[in-house]
Amino acid sequence: MAAGEPLIGLGVSGGIGAYKAVEVARLLQKRGYRVQAILTRNARKFVGPLTFEAITQRPVITSQFAVGMNADIEHIALATEMRALVVAPATASVIGKFANGIADDFLTALYLATRAPLVLAPAMNTVMWEHPAVRGNLATLAARGARCVGPGEGYLACGWIGQGRLAEPDEIARFVDELVRTAVGPLAGRRLLITAGPTLEDIDPVRYLGNRSSGRMGFALAAEAMRRGADVHLVAGPTSVEPPDVTTLTRVRTAAQMHAAVMAASTKRDVVIMAAAVADYTPVGGAHSAKMEKGDGLTLALERTADILADLGQRRAVTPGAVTPVLVGFAAETGPAEDRAARKLVQKQVDLVVANDVSAEGAGFDVDTNRVTLVSRESQQALPLMSKTAVAAAILDRVEALLAPVTATHP
Ligand code: CTP
Fold it and tell me: Which is the CATH superfamily of the domain at 7-182?
């Protein structure tokens, strides 16, 4: 696809507002975008492809199976090149297909094939809009990061007055423009590796040693880094909380597996943040293959696990000159954590330690808030009690400052 203005995919599904999508295309072009229109079969009953073709100055995609479609490299490039996928109008049907991963035409397949942000401009009858099935599908899509513009309230084509009316074309174009312009976040082009959750050390097929980490802090960091435009590789232990959408997700169970995953992935990263609560000890010789009997008592022999963060610090120290990542660790203590964090900073040779007293009110494992102090060689910044998302933002602000002098990024 020829370089030039940024490309927007404009999906048009079969609703009475389909004719307004022509105006959306025109307004997006006026704002400096190229527009690739994709019409569903039902959309073509309301508005003709020729109208879009004349406005956008390019062929309109109407079918996945049209002759030439699969040979035409332009269409294949669309999924990777477009900066946003906008669907206006978005019917209950297309919303349902997106939410459930049904790909039975070009538009729904394109949604699965792209990482571009999705903007929906829904339009439907008020009763449909309020139906639990539609609400549920929209909630699913919102959780994946989709944005909705409208619907507005007003006189609907079916004669009802209520919510369900397609947002005005100007509002849709403005919304998309703002989204695309702000999408180039402060961490765009940066590659982050973030760990989260606990590791579990198996004792036998039934028992394990674990800890109470929920993964929430690491997940909040990963989500915030994604919002800031970073490429995020998340290495997560077993968690009951769902991880956010990230570029790459690796699930591990044990400290040894996390060590292997992090050491392998970290060579191509600008930043490594070790938010995981890695087990410090594991049973000597690994897990028993059969369940251990209670008998008269049971003795566990434990050995230290390899310290991942310290190994990263050590590797960075012995490879001067190479592009090495900014290293951030956590120090969870029961009681004031700053002094121990300052010691860990030096011992593990890292740039920033996030110290938290997990026994403090509102801080720790199973809550959505945290109170931390950011400890570096130069300063100790105590933050008030705030949401883990806000803590993540504060940590990433510091990471951005640490990255500022490091211009080289990995390919
Ligand atoms: N860490 C690690 N590998 C381990 C253990 C911990 O990379 N085997 C990392 C954690 O992800 C965290 C930091 O090191 O970033 C925590 O350091 P640690 O010394 O384990 O501190 P705490 O567990 O907080 O405290 P303590 O020293 O009391 O065990």
Answer: Flavin prenyltransferase-like (3.40.50.1950)
